[in-house]
DNA sequence: GTTGAGCGTT
Protein backbone atom coordinates (compact mmCIF):
# COMPACT_ATOMS: atom_id res chain seq x y z
CA UNK A 1 0.00 0.00 0.00
CA UNK A 2 1.26 3.47 -0.86
CA UNK A 3 2.26 5.90 1.84
CA UNK A 4 -0.83 7.20 3.52
CA UNK A 5 -1.74 9.63 6.27
CA UNK A 6 -4.71 9.73 8.56
CA UNK A 7 -6.01 12.91 10.14
CA UNK A 8 -5.81 13.06 13.91
CA UNK A 9 -6.82 15.84 16.28
CA UNK A 10 -6.91 16.36 20.01
CA UNK A 11 -10.56 17.44 19.91
CA UNK A 12 -13.24 16.93 17.32
CA UNK A 13 -13.19 20.46 15.95
CA UNK A 14 -9.51 21.22 16.24
CA UNK A 15 -7.10 21.34 13.35
CA UNK A 16 -6.00 17.80 12.57
CA UNK A 17 -2.43 16.60 12.17
CA UNK A 18 -1.54 14.03 9.55
CA UNK A 19 -0.15 10.78 10.99
CA UNK A 20 1.55 8.22 8.75
CA UNK A 21 0.20 4.70 8.42
CA UNK A 22 2.19 1.50 8.10
CA UNK A 23 2.60 -0.41 4.84
CA UNK A 24 -0.28 -2.72 5.70
CA UNK A 25 -2.68 0.18 6.25
CA UNK A 26 -2.63 0.01 10.04
CA UNK A 27 -1.49 2.86 12.27
CA UNK A 28 0.74 2.29 15.27
CA UNK A 29 -0.43 3.71 18.57
CA UNK A 30 3.17 4.65 19.22
CA UNK A 31 3.12 6.84 16.11
CA UNK A 32 0.05 8.62 17.43
CA UNK A 33 1.60 8.93 20.89
CA UNK A 34 4.73 10.46 19.38
CA UNK A 35 2.58 13.46 18.40
CA UNK A 36 0.06 13.22 21.25
CA UNK A 37 1.97 12.08 24.35
CA UNK A 38 -0.19 9.95 26.59
CA UNK A 39 -2.57 8.85 23.84
CA UNK A 40 -4.07 5.42 24.44
CA UNK A 41 -6.39 5.10 21.43
CA UNK A 42 -8.46 6.80 18.75
CA UNK A 43 -12.15 7.43 18.16
CA UNK A 44 -14.17 8.97 15.36
CA UNK A 45 -17.72 10.06 14.61
CA UNK A 46 -19.46 7.52 12.43
CA UNK A 47 -21.00 9.22 9.37
CA UNK A 48 -23.78 6.62 9.53
CA UNK A 49 -24.80 6.51 13.18
CA UNK A 50 -23.45 9.97 14.11
CA UNK A 51 -22.09 8.33 17.27
CA UNK A 52 -18.49 8.31 18.38
CA UNK A 53 -16.85 4.99 17.61
CA UNK A 54 -13.67 3.49 18.95
CA UNK A 55 -10.91 2.40 16.60
CA UNK A 56 -9.93 -1.24 17.05
CA UNK A 57 -6.66 -1.50 18.96
CA UNK A 58 -4.77 -4.79 19.16
CA UNK A 59 -1.39 -4.89 20.85
CA UNK A 60 -0.49 -1.32 19.99
CA UNK A 61 -1.76 -1.54 16.40
CA UNK A 62 -4.74 0.58 15.31
CA UNK A 63 -6.90 -1.02 12.64
CA UNK A 64 -8.90 0.94 10.07
CA UNK A 65 -12.70 0.85 10.20
CA UNK A 66 -14.52 -1.38 7.71
CA UNK A 67 -14.35 1.10 4.85
CA UNK A 68 -10.82 2.20 5.44
CA UNK A 69 -9.52 5.29 7.22
CA UNK A 70 -11.08 7.64 4.67
CA UNK A 71 -10.91 11.35 5.22
CA UNK A 72 -12.43 11.34 8.71
CA UNK A 73 -10.84 13.18 11.57
CA UNK A 74 -9.79 10.80 14.33
CA UNK A 75 -9.83 12.07 17.89
CA UNK A 76 -7.20 11.08 20.42
CA UNK A 77 -8.24 9.11 23.51
CA UNK A 78 -6.41 9.62 26.77
CA UNK A 79 -6.44 7.39 29.85
CA UNK A 80 -9.46 8.25 32.03
CA UNK A 81 -10.16 11.08 29.59
CA UNK A 82 -7.23 13.14 30.78
CA UNK A 83 -4.65 14.80 28.62
CA UNK A 84 -0.95 14.37 29.23
CA UNK A 85 -0.38 17.93 30.42
CA UNK A 86 -3.19 17.47 32.91
CA UNK A 87 -1.58 14.26 34.09
CA UNK A 88 1.71 16.12 34.46
CA UNK A 89 0.05 18.84 36.48
CA UNK A 90 -1.74 16.45 38.79
CA UNK A 91 1.25 14.16 39.27
CA UNK A 92 3.27 17.17 40.34
CA UNK A 93 0.80 17.90 43.10
CA UNK A 94 0.40 14.20 43.84
CA UNK A 95 4.03 14.04 44.92
CA UNK A 96 3.39 16.69 47.56
CA UNK A 97 0.05 15.38 48.79
CA UNK A 98 0.86 11.70 48.59
CA UNK A 99 -2.58 10.91 49.98
CA UNK A 100 -5.91 10.11 48.35
CA UNK A 101 -4.36 7.49 46.15
CA UNK A 102 -4.78 3.95 47.33
CA UNK A 103 -1.97 1.51 47.94
CA UNK A 104 -1.82 -2.23 48.32
CA UNK A 105 -2.69 -3.52 51.78
CA UNK A 106 -1.19 -6.62 53.25
CA UNK A 107 -3.74 -9.05 54.64
CA UNK A 108 -2.28 -11.05 57.53
CA UNK A 109 -3.64 -14.20 59.12
CA UNK A 110 -5.56 -15.73 56.23
CA UNK A 111 -6.77 -19.30 56.59
CA UNK A 112 -4.78 -21.70 54.43
CA UNK A 113 -7.83 -22.47 52.35
CA UNK A 114 -8.75 -18.86 51.48
CA UNK A 115 -8.54 -18.14 47.75
CA UNK A 116 -8.21 -14.91 45.84
CA UNK A 117 -11.87 -15.21 44.87
CA UNK A 118 -12.80 -15.51 48.56
CA UNK A 119 -10.78 -12.39 49.31
CA UNK A 120 -12.33 -10.47 46.47
CA UNK A 121 -15.85 -11.48 47.51
CA UNK A 122 -15.19 -10.45 51.08
CA UNK A 123 -13.52 -7.10 50.41
CA UNK A 124 -15.95 -6.09 47.68
CA UNK A 125 -18.42 -5.25 50.45
CA UNK A 126 -16.14 -2.34 51.41
CA UNK A 127 -15.60 -0.91 47.93
CA UNK A 128 -14.37 -1.76 44.49
CA UNK A 129 -11.50 -4.23 44.69
CA UNK A 130 -9.01 -3.73 41.87
CA UNK A 131 -6.38 -6.31 42.90
CA UNK A 132 -6.16 -9.32 45.17
CA UNK A 133 -3.33 -11.75 45.73
CA UNK A 134 -2.85 -14.77 47.95
CA UNK A 135 0.85 -15.49 48.36
CA UNK A 136 1.63 -19.14 47.83
CA UNK A 137 4.59 -21.44 47.96
CA UNK A 138 5.78 -21.67 44.37
CA UNK A 139 6.51 -25.40 44.68
CA UNK A 140 3.48 -26.67 46.56
CA UNK A 141 0.98 -23.96 45.74
CA UNK A 142 0.00 -23.81 49.40
CA UNK A 143 -1.06 -20.46 50.76
CA UNK A 144 1.48 -18.70 52.95
CA UNK A 145 -1.41 -17.30 54.97
CA UNK A 146 -1.17 -13.74 53.76
CA UNK A 147 -2.04 -11.74 50.73
CA UNK A 148 -2.62 -8.29 49.33
CA UNK A 149 -5.65 -6.24 48.39
CA UNK A 150 -6.03 -2.92 46.61
CA UNK A 151 -9.15 -0.78 46.53
CA UNK A 152 -10.22 1.77 43.97
CA UNK A 153 -11.31 4.25 46.63
CA UNK A 154 -9.27 5.77 49.39
CA UNK A 155 -12.28 5.70 51.71
CA UNK A 156 -12.64 1.93 51.41
CA UNK A 157 -8.96 1.47 52.18
CA UNK A 158 -9.26 3.59 55.33
CA UNK A 159 -12.26 1.66 56.58
CA UNK A 160 -10.59 -1.68 55.94
CA UNK A 161 -7.42 -0.69 57.77
CA UNK A 162 -9.37 0.56 60.78
CA UNK A 163 -10.89 -2.77 61.76
CA UNK A 164 -10.22 -6.50 62.05
CA UNK A 165 -11.71 -8.92 59.57
CA UNK A 166 -13.30 -12.31 60.05
CA UNK A 167 -12.37 -14.21 56.89
CA UNK A 168 -13.29 -17.89 56.55
CA UNK A 169 -13.28 -18.27 60.35
CA UNK A 170 -10.09 -16.43 61.30
CA UNK A 171 -9.38 -12.89 62.38
CA UNK A 172 -7.22 -11.07 59.86
CA UNK A 173 -5.50 -7.69 59.86
CA UNK A 174 -5.01 -5.31 56.96
CA UNK A 175 -2.08 -2.93 57.14
CA UNK A 176 0.14 -0.83 54.96
CA UNK A 177 2.95 -3.17 53.93
CA UNK A 178 6.47 -2.37 55.07
CA UNK A 179 7.50 -1.61 51.52
CA UNK A 180 5.11 1.36 51.60
CA UNK A 181 5.92 2.66 55.08
CA UNK A 182 8.85 4.82 54.11
CA UNK A 183 8.43 6.95 50.99
CA UNK A 184 10.89 6.18 48.23
CA UNK A 185 13.19 9.10 47.60
CA UNK A 186 13.11 10.48 44.09
CA UNK A 187 16.24 10.92 41.97
CA UNK A 188 17.15 12.20 38.57
CA UNK A 189 16.93 9.16 36.40
CA UNK A 190 15.02 8.47 33.24
CA UNK A 191 14.96 4.79 34.17
CA UNK A 192 12.67 3.13 36.66
CA UNK A 193 12.88 -0.25 38.29
CA UNK A 194 9.71 -2.31 37.88
CA UNK A 195 9.55 -4.85 40.69
CA UNK A 196 7.24 -7.85 41.18
CA UNK A 197 6.82 -8.50 37.47
CA UNK A 198 5.33 -11.84 36.52
CA UNK A 199 6.77 -13.97 33.76
CA UNK A 200 3.82 -13.46 31.42
CA UNK A 201 4.33 -9.70 31.15
CA UNK A 202 6.20 -9.04 27.91
CA UNK A 203 8.49 -6.15 27.07
CA UNK A 204 5.98 -5.03 24.49
CA UNK A 205 3.19 -4.98 27.06
CA UNK A 206 5.35 -2.96 29.43
CA UNK A 207 6.06 -0.49 26.66
CA UNK A 208 2.38 -0.22 25.74
CA UNK A 209 1.42 0.25 29.37
CA UNK A 210 4.03 2.85 30.32
CA UNK A 211 3.46 4.81 27.11
CA UNK A 212 0.47 6.42 28.78
CA UNK A 213 2.82 8.34 31.06
CA UNK A 214 5.25 9.52 28.40
CA UNK A 215 7.58 8.41 25.64
CA UNK A 216 9.29 5.13 26.47
CA UNK A 217 12.80 4.82 25.06
CA UNK A 218 13.75 1.41 26.40
CA UNK A 219 12.37 -1.67 28.11
CA UNK A 220 14.67 -4.26 29.61
CA UNK A 221 13.63 -7.64 31.02
CA UNK A 222 16.47 -9.78 32.37
CA UNK A 223 16.63 -13.32 31.09
CA UNK A 224 16.22 -15.77 32.68
CA UNK A 225 13.16 -14.46 34.50
CA UNK A 226 13.99 -12.52 37.65
CA UNK A 227 10.68 -10.83 38.44
CA UNK A 228 11.75 -7.31 37.60
CA UNK A 229 12.30 -5.06 34.63
CA UNK A 230 13.59 -1.63 33.71
CA UNK A 231 11.67 0.99 31.79
CA UNK A 232 13.39 4.11 30.50
CA UNK A 233 11.50 7.25 29.59
CA UNK A 234 12.55 10.14 27.39
CA UNK A 235 11.72 12.50 30.25
CA UNK A 236 13.23 12.08 33.71
CA UNK A 237 10.25 13.87 35.28
CA UNK A 238 7.96 11.14 34.05
CA UNK A 239 10.24 8.54 35.63
CA UNK A 240 10.38 10.50 38.88
CA UNK A 241 6.61 10.91 39.03
CA UNK A 242 6.13 7.14 38.92
CA UNK A 243 8.62 6.23 41.63
CA UNK A 244 6.95 4.78 44.69
CA UNK A 245 3.78 3.87 42.81
CA UNK A 246 2.18 0.47 42.74
CA UNK A 247 0.76 0.08 39.25
CA UNK A 248 -1.45 -2.70 38.03
CA UNK A 249 -0.44 -4.36 34.77
CA UNK A 250 -2.52 -7.30 33.57
CA UNK A 251 -3.93 -7.67 37.08
CA UNK A 252 -0.47 -7.75 38.64
CA UNK A 253 0.61 -5.11 41.12
CA UNK A 254 4.10 -4.03 40.19
CA UNK A 255 6.19 -1.65 42.26
CA UNK A 256 7.99 1.24 40.65
CA UNK A 257 11.17 2.57 42.16
CA UNK A 258 14.25 4.33 40.98
CA UNK A 259 16.73 2.32 38.99
CA UNK A 260 19.52 3.61 41.22
CA UNK A 261 20.14 1.33 44.19
CA UNK A 262 19.26 2.84 47.57
CA UNK A 263 22.39 1.55 49.27
CA UNK A 264 25.36 1.03 47.03
CA UNK A 265 27.65 -1.79 47.94
CA UNK A 266 31.37 -1.14 47.80
CA UNK A 267 31.83 -2.66 44.39
CA UNK A 268 28.97 -0.64 42.95
CA UNK A 269 30.30 2.58 44.45
CA UNK A 270 33.77 1.90 43.06
CA UNK A 271 32.27 1.02 39.73
CA UNK A 272 30.19 4.18 39.66
CA UNK A 273 33.21 6.27 40.66
CA UNK A 274 35.01 4.73 37.71
CA UNK A 275 32.24 5.82 35.41
CA UNK A 276 32.62 9.38 36.57
CA UNK A 277 36.24 9.46 35.54
CA UNK A 278 38.39 9.14 38.65
CA UNK A 279 40.89 7.13 36.68
CA UNK A 280 39.64 3.62 37.37
CA UNK A 281 38.19 1.98 34.32
CA UNK A 282 35.12 -0.19 34.20
CA UNK A 283 37.16 -3.34 33.81
CA UNK A 284 39.38 -2.54 36.76
CA UNK A 285 37.50 -4.48 39.40
CA UNK A 286 36.99 -7.79 37.67
CA UNK A 287 33.69 -8.98 36.35
CA UNK A 288 30.48 -7.85 37.96
CA UNK A 289 27.89 -10.22 39.29
CA UNK A 290 25.10 -10.65 36.76
CA UNK A 291 22.74 -10.14 39.70
CA UNK A 292 23.65 -6.48 40.12
CA UNK A 293 24.79 -5.58 36.67
CA UNK A 294 21.41 -4.39 35.32
CA UNK A 295 21.30 -1.64 37.95
CA UNK A 296 24.51 -0.21 36.54
CA UNK A 297 23.51 0.05 32.93
CA UNK A 298 23.05 3.47 31.28
CA UNK A 299 21.13 5.07 34.05
C1' DG B 1 -0.09 -34.54 54.20
C1' DT B 2 2.79 -30.46 59.22
C1' DT B 3 2.35 -24.33 60.41
C1' DG B 4 0.11 -19.02 62.58
C1' DA B 5 4.17 -14.38 63.00
C1' DG B 6 5.11 -12.03 59.31
C1' DC B 7 5.90 -8.53 54.51
C1' DG B 8 5.16 -8.87 47.89
C1' DT B 9 10.77 -14.35 43.64
C1' DT B 10 15.44 -6.82 42.89
TrEMBL record:
**Entry's Gene Ontology BP terms:** mRNA processing; regulation of gene expression; RNA splicing
SMART domains assigned to the protein according to its UniProt record, in alphabetical order: RRM (SM00360)
**Is RNA-binding one of the keywords?**
yes
Concerning Pfam families, the annotation shows:
RRM_1, TDP-43_N
Q: What is this protein called?
A: TAR DNA-binding protein 43
| SUPFAM superfamilies listed in its UniProt record | RNA-binding domain, RBD (SSF54928)
Molecular-function annotations in GO: double-stranded DNA binding; RNA binding
